[in-house]
Design brief:
The complex is a heterotrimer of chains A (251), B (306) and C (347). Chain B has 306 residues and is mainly alpha-helical. In chain B, 75% of the residues lie in helices and 3% in strands. Chain B starts with a helix and ends in a 10-residue tail after the last helix. The chains are: A alpha/beta (251), B mainly alpha (306), C mainly alpha (347).
C-alpha cells in the first residue's frame, strides 16, 4: 500500500492570463482525510473540477490508484471510484430523495440501456439507496421530492448522492456551505463517520470542522500548495498564519 | 470558366454574406444579451421589405423609402419587445421557440391581410439600374455594388458602435456576462429594447436592400433566417465579429457551391450523375460546412461567453 | 427495517416516474378504456352517419399524435429542444414513397417494395440511422446552438429532396397505392387503414410508457433535470441522449410513413421547418414531458386548424394568437392546466 490513492503531479490550469492552478502537487493516501484550506480565489474549486474531470488540466498528471486518469471524462472517473459533491447543491429536485440516491446507485449497477422493466420495481436499487439514505439520516424524508427539503437536508442529500456511486475517494466541496451551527455539527458527525469508510479530500472554510476532521491539511494560496502537515503543524506554521489564517487563529 | 466569372461570383458571395450579416447581427445580439431565441427575426426582415416597397411607391424615392422602412421596423421591433417578447426572457428556450414561432404565423398572416397575397415588385433605383464595367469584360450590376457598399458601411458602423461607444461596451458586457451588465448600471430593460430595435432595423435594412433583387412576398424571411441562424451558430453565439465572418463564409460557400459544384463534379463523374448530384450537394453544402465546423468547435468559431 | 423498505419501495413504485404515474387511480383507466372503445367504434359510427371524411381526418390526428409523442420523448423527457423533427417525419414519408416508386418506375437506386412489413421497418431503420448521424453532431452542442443545428440539419434534408428531381423535387411525388399488409386486408380502405394506424399508436404509446419508467427513462429524466450531476454520478450523458434521439427519430419516421400512406403523396412540405414547429406546438400545448402531451396537442391543434380554416382565410393568425395566449397563461400545457383545475376543484 505504498502508492497513494490519489497522486497529483505538477498540475496547471490557466484561464487566459490567470494561472488558477500552478504546478500543484498533492498526495492522498488510502484511508486518509486531507483537507484543503485557503483564501477565496485560491483555486480550490478549480482543483476539484480538474480532479473530477469537469475541467481538463493544461499540464501535469493525476494518478488514481497508480493509473493516469488525466484525460478521462467525468463519468469514466466516477466508475474508477472518484465521486464529487458540489459547493452549490446539485440534486434532482423533482425526484424524491430515494430516487435521487437510487439514480446514483443505478449508475454503478449494470447497464442503464434497459428500456422495458420499470426501474421502480428493482428492489436491489431501492434497498441500496435506502441504506444510504438511512446512513446520512434522511430516512424520514425519503419519499419527499428533493425540492421540499431544508437547506441542511439538501446538503446531506448532496453527499448521499456522491456516496451512492460507490467511490473510493470522495471529493467534498464545502459540504458545510451555508449551514447553521446545528446543521454544521451534524454534518461534521456524518463526515466523521464516512471517514471510516472512504478516503476523503475535503475543501472547507469552516476551520473548526477542518481541525476536527482532517488527518492532514494542505494550504492552497494562488493555486499552489504552500504547506502541508498535520493539524498541529498547520496551526503552528508561521508562514501559514501570515499568509492565510491571520488573526483568525487566536486559539 | 474564367477569372472574371470567378470574381463575379466572389462579389455575389460577398453581397449575400453581408446581407446575411445584417440579419445575423441582430440575432446574435438578442441571443447574446437577452439570452432569447427569436425565430420571428425573419418576419422583421419581411416587414422591412414590405414597408420599403410601399414607401418607395409613395415617395418615389428609394432612399426615402428605405429610411422610412428602417424607422418603421425599428419602432415595430421596440413595440414588440416591450409589449410581448420581454415576458419571455426569463422563460426557457422552448417557450421562446414556441412564442416566436406563433409570432411568425401571426405576422405572416398579418402581412397577408394588409398587403394581400401577391408578391410586390420593387424597381432598382434608376441611378444604379445598369451594369458597371468593373474590369474589361466584367459587367456587374451597379445596384449590387451599392448593396455591398451599404453592407460594408453598416458592418463598420456596427463595429465602431460595439467597440468604441458606451452603449457598445454595455452590449459587450451583456453578451459575455449579464451580471456585469447589471453592475454597470443604467436602465437594463431600456438597453434591451434599444438592442432589439437595432436588430429589427438591421433586418429591415437587409429586407429593403434585397427587395429589388428578390421578390417581396410572405415567407421571404424564412429561408434566409435559417441561414442567418447557421451564421450565428458558426460564428459563436453573441459574437458580432463571429457573425460577420460566419456570414461571409456562408455567403461565399453557398454562392460558390451553386456556381461551381456541378462543373467540378463533371470532372470526376459522368455528366448525368453530376447534373443530378451537383444541385443537391450545392444546396446542402452550407449545412455540411456547418456540421463540420461544429464537429470541431461545438461552440462556434468565436464563442463570446467564457 | 425490512418492513419500512417494503412500504417505502411500494410507494416508490407508485410515485415513480412523472406525475402520470401518480394518478394511476381508476378514473384515468376507465376514461382511457372509454376513449379507446369510442375510437374503435368510430369508423362504424361515421359510416352509419355517412360522414366517412371524418375517418381520414381522425386518422390524420392519430398519425400526428404519434409524431408529436415521439418528439415529446426527446423534447419533454430528455429536455433536448429539437427543431428538426420534420427531418424524420418527412424523411420517413419519403422513404416509403421512394420504396414504392421503385416498384412502379424502377429508378434503380433502391430495391422497391410495397409491403408494409418490409417498407415500414425499413423506414424506421433508415430514420434511426439518419437520427444517429444528425444527433451525433448536434448533441455535441447545447441550448440555443442545439435548437439551431437540428433546425439546420432538417433544412439540409429539405433542400436535398427539393433538388432530387428523381423523386419529384419541388413538386413532390405521387405514390401509386398504399402499402400492402396481406391477410386479405387492404389499406386502401380508409377504415382498415384507420385501425392499423390506431393499433400502431396504441402500441407505440405503450412502448413509450414502458420506456419512460425504465432504467433508461430514469436516466433521460435525470439528464433533463441536471445533466452536469448525471455526469458526476457516472453517466455518459451523450450516449443516452443519442439513443433517445434515435428512438424518437425512428418513431417519427414511422409516423411519416403512415402519413405518406394516408395521402398517397409526399412533398418537401412535410420536411418544412413549419412542420417541426407544428410538432413542437403540439407537444408544448399538450404538455411537455407528459406521456399523453403529444396526443392531446395533436388533437387540439388539428381540430383548431380544421375549425378555424372553415371560418377564415387567416386561420394561422388566429391559431398563432391563441397559442401565444396559451403559452402566457398555461406554461405547463393543457394537461398541466387540467391538473390545476382538477386539484382546485377538489379543494
Amino acid at each position: 500500500m505504498n502508492t497513494p490513492l490519489l497522486k497529483v503531479e505538477s498540475l496547471v490550469k490557466r484561464f487566459g492570463g490567470l494561472t488558477a492552478t500552478d504546478q500543484l502537487s498533492l498526495d492522498v493516501a488510502q484511508g486518509e482525510l486531507v483537507a484543503i484550506i485557503g483564501p477565496n480565489g485560491a483555486g480550490k474549486t478549480t482543483l476539484l473540477s480538474q480532479l473530477s474531470g469537469a475541467m481538463f488540466s493544461d499540464e501535469g498528471r493525476i494518478l488514481f490508484a497508480g493509473e493516469d486518469i488525466s484525460r478521462l471524462p467525468v463519468h469514466r472517473r466516477v466508475h474508477k471510484g472518484l465521486a464529487r459533491s458540489y459547493q452549490i447543491t446539485s440534486i434532482f429536485k423533482s425526484f424524491t430523495v430515494l430516487q435521487n440516491v437510487a439514480l446514483a446507485v443505478q449508475s454503478r449497477s449494470g447497464t442503464s440501456m434497459r428500456f422495458w422493466a420499470p426501474v421502480a420495481s428493482e428492489r436491489d436499487l431501492l434497498e441500496a439507496a435506502l441504506a444510504i439514505v438511512t446512513d446520512v439520516g434522511l430516512e424520514s424524508v425519503a419519499e419527499r421530492p428533493a425540492s421540499q427539503l431544508s437547506h441542511g437536508q439538501q446538503r446531506q442529500l448532496e453527499l448521499a448522492i456522491a456516496i451512492a456511486t460507490g467511490p473510493r475517494l470522495l471529493l467534498l466541496d464545502e459540504p458545510m456551505a451555508g449551514m447553521g451551527r446545528e446543521e454544521t455539527l451534524r454534518m461534521v458527525e456524518l463526515i466523521h463517520r464516512l471517514k471510516q469508510r472512504f478516503t476523503i479530500l475535503l475543501v472547507e472554510h469552516d476551520m473548526d470542522a477542518v481541525f476536527r476532521l482532517a488527518d492532514r491539511i494542505a494550504v492552497l494560496v494562488y493555486g499552489r500548495v504552500i504547506a502541508t502537515g498535520s493539524v498541529e503543524e498547520i496551526r503552528n506554521n508561521r508562514e501559514v498564519r501570515q499568509a492565510y489564517l491571520g488573526e483568525e487563529l487566536t486559539v | 470558366m474564367t477569372a472574371t466569372f470567378l470574381l463575379e461570383q466572389m462579389l455575389n458571395g460577398l453581397q449575400f454574406g453581408l446581407m446575411l450579416f445584417l440579419l445575423a447581427a441582430g440575432l446574435t445580439l438578442v441571443f447574446g444579451i437577452m439570452n432569447m431565441i427569436n425565430l420571428a427575426h425573419g418576419s422583421l426582415y419581411m416587414i422591412g421589405a414590405y414597408l420599403a416597397a410601399t414607401a418607395v411607391g409613395y415617395t418615389g424615392s428609394f432612399v426615402a423609402g428605405v429610411l422610412i422602412a428602417l424607422a418603421g421596423t425599428a419602432a415595430f421591433g421596440a413595440l414588440l419587445e416591450s409589449s410581448l417578447l420581454r415576458r419571455f426572457y426569463g422563460r426557457d428556450h422552448l417557450s421562446q421557440v414556441l412564442a416566436t414561432f406563433a409570432l411568425i404565423l401571426i405576422l405572416n398572416d398579418g402581412v397577408r391581410m394588409i398587403w394581400g397575397p401577391h408578391a410586390m415588385l420593387v424597381n432598382v433605383p434608376a441611378l444604379v439600374s445598369g451594369p458597371i464595367e468593373l474590369l474589361p469584360g466584367l459587367h456587374y450590376p451597379a445596384y449590387r455594388l451599392v448593396v455591398i457598399a451599404v453592407g460594408l458601411l453598416v458592418a463598420l458602423g456596427l463595429y465602431l458602435l460595439v467597440v468604441h461607444t458606451r452603449i457598445g461596451m454595455r452590449i459587450r458586457a451583456g453578451a459575455s456576462n449579464r451580471e456585469m451588465a447589471n453592475a454597470l448600471g443604467g436602465n437594463i430593460s431600456g438597453l434591451f429594447t434599444v438592442v432589439f430595435a437595432l436588430g429589427a432595423m438591421l433586418a429591415a435594412l437587409a429586407g429593403a436592400m434585397l427587395g429589388p433583387v428578390l421578390a417581396v412576398e410572405v415567407g421571404m424571411g424564412e429561408s434566409i433566417i435559417i441561414l442567418a441562424f447557421v451564421v450565428v451558430v458558426i460564428g459563436g453565439i453573441g459574437s458580432v465579429r463571429g457573425a460577420l465572418i460566419g456570414a461571409i463564409v456562408v455567403g461565399c460557400v453557398d454562392t460558390f457551391g451553386r456556381a461551381f459544384l456541378t462543373t467540378i463534379l463533371r470532372e470526376f463523374s459522368s455528366p448525368t450523375v453530376a447534373d443530378n448530384l451537383g444541385p443537391s450537394l450545392a444546396s446542402m453544402l452550407i449545412y455540411i460546412v456547418m456540421a463540420a465546423i461544429l464537429f470541431w468547435k461545438p461552440r462556434g468559431l468565436f464563442p463570446a461567453q467564457a | 427495517m425490512t418492513s419500512t423498505l417494503v412500504s417505502i419501495s411500494s410507494k416508490a413504485i407508485a410515485s415513480a416516474g412523472d406525475a402520470a404515474g401518480k394518478r394511476s387511480s381508476l378514473v384515468p383507466t376507465v376514461a382511457g378504456l372509454g376513449l379507446l372503445t369510442a375510437l374503435l367504434l368510430f369508423p362504424s359510427i361515421a359510416a352509419a352517419l355517412d360522414e366517412t371524411f371524418y375517418v381520414s381526418f381522425v386518422t390524420r390526428i392519430l398519425i400526428f399524435a404519434l409524431a408529436a409523442s415521439s418528439l415529446n420523448l426527446i423534447l419533454g423527457f430528455g429536455g433536448m429542444v429539437s427543431f428538426g423533427h420534420a427531418a424524420f417525419f418527412g424523411g420517413g414519408a419519403y422513404i416509403v414513397g421512394m420504396l414504392s416508386i421503385e416498384v412502379t418506375r424502377d429508378i434503380g437506386l433502391l430495391p422497391g417494395t410495397q409491403s408494409a412489413w418490409v417498407a415500414w421497418p425499413t423506414t424506421m431503420l433508415a430514420c434511426a440511422l439518419m437520427a444517429a448521424l444528425i444527433g451525433a453532431i448536434s448533441l455535441r452542442t447545447r441550448g440555443v446552438s442545439f435548437i439551431m443545428i437540428t433546425l439546420a440539419f432538417a433544412q439540409m434534408i429539405y433542400y436535398l429532396f427539393v433538388s432530387l428531381k428523381t423523386y419529384g423535387g419541388d413538386e413532390g411525388m405521387n405514390i401509386g397505392t398504399r402499402s400492402t399488409i396481406g391477410f386479405g386486408l387492404s389499406l386502401s380502405d380508409d377504415a382498415t387503414f384507420y385501425y392499423v394506424v390506431l393499433a400502431l399508436l396504441v402500441v407505440s404509446m405503450m412502448l413509450f410508457r414502458r420506456l419512460v419508467h425504465s432504467r433508461f427513462g430514469n436516466v433521460i429524466r435525470g439528464i433533463r433535470e441536471n445533466e452536469t450531476r448525471m455526469e458526476a454520478i457516472g453517466y455518459d450523458t451523450y450516449r443516452y441522449k443519442l439513443v433517445c434521439f434515435v428512438i424518437a427519430g425512428s418513431f417519427a419516421g414511422l409516423a411519416g410513413a403512415l402519413l405518406a400512406n394516408q395521402n398517397t403523396f409526399v412533398s418537401p412540405r412535410m420536411l418544412d421547418w413549419h412542420q417541426s414547429g407544428l410538432l413542437i406546438m403540439m407537444v408544448i400545448l399538450g404538455g411537455v414531458g407528459r406521456l399523453w402531451g403529444g396526443v392531446v396537442g395533436a388533437v387540439v391543434i388539428l381540430l383548431l386548424e380544421e375549425i378555424l380554416s372553415e371560418y377564415t382565410l387567416y386561420w394561422q393568425f388566429w391559431l398563432g394568437s391563441l397559442l401565444l395566449f396559451l403559452i402566457i397563461v398555461a406554461p405547463k400545457g393543457l394537461i398541466g392546466l387540467a391538473d390545476r383545475a382538477f386539484k382546485g376543484g377538489l379543494k
